[in-house]
Amino acid sequence: METQQTFQVLIADESHLSFAQIICDEMASSAKARGTGIAKRSPEYIQLKMREGKAVIAFNQDGVWAGFCYIETWGHGEYVANSGLIVSPNFRKGGLAKMIKRKIFDLSRQKYPEAKIFGLTTGLAVMKINSELGYEPVTYSELTQDEAFWAGCKSCVNYEILMSKERKNCMCTAMLFDPKDHYQPQETKEFFEEKKSVLERLLRFKQWKFLQPFLNKDSKDKDGKPANKSKKLFQQIFNF
């Protein structure tokens, strides 16, 4: 594995169309290696995102492709998803994923300043990066209900689980950044760091019921909401 790499993260355009196939291949290979689901995308779809200026692409100092991510919109721009995050195996664990997520997040905020930005992930590393950007774990009910979005899950190996749960839960964790109502990034980062060992077990097994003894659901503020912010976030992510 290469270390001490310098990367350039750019807004993708037509000059990068030739990388679409390798991006799709790496997405599929990575999902297979992890044994997790992924909504498949075609090279033509990736190229469309590049042409629209709704994707970011990364290269190392030698011009070798290193990573990618793109923007999708739902509900007439009310919701935005930063999808398809992928880093080449040669450049992982060097901070590049965080760089790409920051770039695509900033691009999303620029293009859709009023939109809620959300994501679904089975990975603790992505959850950590999202938390540092200000994302909060939420229930699936807070995501877009656009049928086109959920149709994209049909190619995921966990689609039957999703449908058996009536789209209320699945193997993925839902996270959301709401520009009108959100915690500060420092708060969500601290929450993640405090609870990451628990989250790792829950992501692996989805046995959230074992957390119930540790949450005092009777602890409410004057508005009837959970008084403790960490408890509130746990209640959101595990559908309490």
TrEMBL record:
Q: Which Pfam families match?
A: Acetyltransf_1 (PF00583)
UniProt-listed InterPro entries: Acyl_CoA_acyltransferase, GNAT_dom
Q: Which residues cross the membrane?
A: none
Q: Where is the N-acetyltransferase domain?
A: 45-111
The family database entries (SUPFAM superfamilies) matched by this protein are listed as: Acyl-CoA N-acyltransferases (Nat)
GO terms for MF? acyltransferase activity, transferring groups other than amino-acyl groups
Name-wise, this protein is: N-acetyltransferase domain-containing protein
